[in-house]
Write a structure and sequence with these properties.
This protein is of the alpha/beta class and about 260 residues long. It contains seven helices and 13 strands. The strands form three sheets. A six-stranded parallel sheet has the order 5-4-1-8-9-10, sandwiched between helices. It starts with 5 loop residues before the first helix and ends in a 15-residue tail after the last strand.
Length: about 260
């Protein structure tokens, strides 16, 4: 093994301040007219890790890589300060999507893998390197809700002072209000999309939903509303803010929601 510089040696011995739990996907990206779509080895886990690395480094990545996932394609993450020791091989099939970008900016996801792959490649607490248990903050990205529940429960028990945030998957919230109500008090912040909140509560009104989620136990809620920005609510202070997106040139929206 090559020589480690001071920063790398510190990461090896003391862990990382932020850890992202999530999934890896193989995505075919492009407009409807694309005959040869761009193929990306990515997913919500690495995209979220890159977002976190803007604010604090290093970032630990915990994810399961299926047999057909080329982990070498994640090598570019190293320059962002993303530690991949939590990426473990899993004898399973990768999640595969065709992501179609429409002319009006809308996106459509077509699942190209058996749905069981979504469950087979979900990370677990056992994938978390021992040195990372004492991290300051953990984000649990979209995954099967049962897996998210086990991770949140495990983190709450092993590191009760840590910040824990949860994003949900749009296919995993319908009819799951009871499960989420049990989880919400254990979270530092709940980070759903507007569509997920509408599915969960049965109405599409973010301002009203903020209060309902607080009543269910959410301490801080951030509802992501795309081009409209994010609606943030602090239940303790009973305060709500609308955070508008910062204007700038759009280069590539892939992964922007993470």
């Amino acid at each position: 093994m090559g020589r480690l510089d001071g920063a790398q040696r510190s990461v090896e011995t003391t862990g990382v301040p932020i850890v992202i739990f999530g999934q890896l996907t193989i995505d075919e990206l492009g407009p409807t007219s694309a005959h040869e779509p761009r193929v990306e080895y990515a997913g919500d886990a690495p995209y979220t890790a890159v977002g976190a690395a803007i604010w604090r480094r290093p970032v630990g990545l915990v994810a399961a890589a299926a047999d057909d996932f080329d982990v070498a394609r994640l090598g570019a993450l190293e320059r962002f300060g993303i530690d991949q020791r939590g990426v473990r091989r899993r004898g399973a099939r990768s999640i595969r999507y065709r992501v179609i970008y429409e002319q009006d900016g809308a996106r459509r996801f077509e699942e190209r893998s058996p749905h069981v792959a979504f469950h087979e490649t979900a990370p677990e607490m056992a994938d978390l390197p021992e040195a990372w248990h004492a991290a300051r903050g953990f984000h649990v990205a979209a995954m099967p809700l049962e897996s998210a529940e086990r991770i949140v429960d495990g983190l709450s028990d092993s590191n009760p002072d840590a910040l824990i945030t949860l994003d949900t998957h749009e296919d995993e919230v319908g009819g799951r209000q009871e499960s989420l109500a049990r989880l919400l008090p254990r979270l530092s912040a709940f980070l759903p999309s507007q569509e997920e909140v509408a599915t969960l509560l049965g109405f599409d009104d973010p301002s009203r939903a903020i209060g309902e989620l607080a009543r269910l136990g959410a301490r801080v809620t951030v509802i992501k509303m795309g081009a409209e920005g994010a609606l943030v609510h602090d239940a303790t202070a009973d305060a709500t803010w609308l955070v508008r997106p910062h204007p700038g040139p759009v280069v590539d929206p892939t992964g922007a929601g993470d």
